[in-house]
Amino acid sequence: MGKIRWLILVTCLSLFAFSDGRELKVWRKSKLPEYNHTLATILVQYASSVYLSDLTELITWTCCRCDGLTKGFEIIELVVDVEHCLQAFVGVAEDPHAIIIAFRGTNEHSLQNWVEDLYWKQHDINYPGMDDAMVHRGFYSAYHNTTIRPAILDAVERAKKFYGDIQIIVTGHSMGGAMAAFCALDLTVNQHEKSVQVMTFGQPRVGNSAFASLYSKRVPNTIRVTHDHDIVPHLPPYYSYLPQKTYRHFPREVWLYNIGLGSLIYSVEKICDGSGEDPDCSRSVSGNSISDHLEYYGVRLGSDEPMSCKIVMDAHVLNLSSRDSRGNIILSRDPATPLLKMSTTKFDNQKNPISVD
């Protein structure tokens, strides 16, 4: 009897050890990033604020979306590619202590942006070690072939010279999430940055299976947050029977959705698997909601202007900005110089609207 009990005990311990070791092995192999809810609620505010059209309020960080969890943030560079209706900023946050890069997503009233989003033809990516990788041409061009990339890289270089080797966090919503992914890959592969983190919201697919695999190896600290029936993460379509040609998400996804009945509603944050296409996450529902796309964690994401790509600046700020021959605008600040508290009341209270249709 004693021998039987001993045998049962040894067997149970062996099974426990085997199970624990197997889980540990899978975790190490996947190298998936850990989801941080607090960080997500901070970054979604940056992804929201970059949509705003008042450049004076953005550069001084006094806008209606520029408070709360992002208090103390100082912008180093704000760039508006008027020609392509794109916008991004680079700055340094107190908490988390990091360089923050945020990209504006698709302006829902801009036909030009929607045409870029619908231009699904894949394009070879000219990065070392990515021979089989194909990416969405419109999203790739929005980052690489506009005023955005050189302005971002210049601002990051200036920030690191002043603040040292601090972490870089890249974020964006919708098409801004796609641009954030390309920016993070660019910083890692071409600029040799060692600590780049990415968190996007409502991001579309950006490349094929080869790209998704290579991206996850180069920028492993990446999380894509999706919301319930949000339509955009379902685009461009994923076809499981065309694994080499179809678009595919890279990991890791965190899916936000509600469960309950009647007035008893509970919010769930589901940590998805490492496939990028977890059938139990956003792929388990139909992607048919625009309203789910425009709100994450209770924060509105989208343009504040009902008309196309209008931007507004104080006359004094307009004079301080630099513009190229195509009208693209860059507002820069030396990190060593305290942030100028420019406001519309300090100058002449006159705003000059610049509209791009």
Q: Care to describe what's here?
A:
- With 357 residues, the chain is of the alpha/beta class.
- The protein has one domain: Rossmann fold.
- The protein has helices spanning 2-30, 37-49, 55-59, 111-118, 137-144, 148-163, 175-189, 209-218, 315-320; strands at 74-81, 86-93, 98-103, 122-124, 134-136, 167-173, 196-201, 222-227, 253-261, 264-271, 295-296, 299-300, 311-314, 322-323, 329-332, 351-354.
- The chain has a ten-stranded mixed beta sheet, sandwiched between helices. The protein has a two-stranded antiparallel sheet with strand order 4-5. A two-stranded antiparallel sheet has the order 11-12.
- Strand 9 and strand 10 (264-271) form a beta hairpin.
- Helix 5 (137-144) crosses helix 7.
- 42% of the residues are buried.
- This is Fungal lipase-type domain-containing protein.
- InterPro entries: AB_hydrolase_fold, Fungal_lipase-type, Sec_MonoDiacylglyc_Lipase.
- Residues 1-21 form the signal peptide.
How many distinct helices?
Answer: 9
CATH class: Alpha Beta
Q: What's the order of the H and E elements?
A: HHHEEEHEEHHEHEHEEEEEEHEEE
Oligomer: single chain
Q: Round the Cα radius of gyration to an integer and report it.
A: 22 Å
Mean pLDDT: 82
CATH homology group = Alpha/Beta hydrolase fold, catalytic domain
Approximate strand percentage? 15-25%
Structural class: alpha/beta
Going across the major beta sheet, what is the strand order? Answer: 10-9-8-7-6-3-2-1-15-14
Organism: Lupinus angustifolius
Pfam families: Lipase_3
Keywords: Hydrolase, Signal
GO molecular function, one term: hydrolase activity
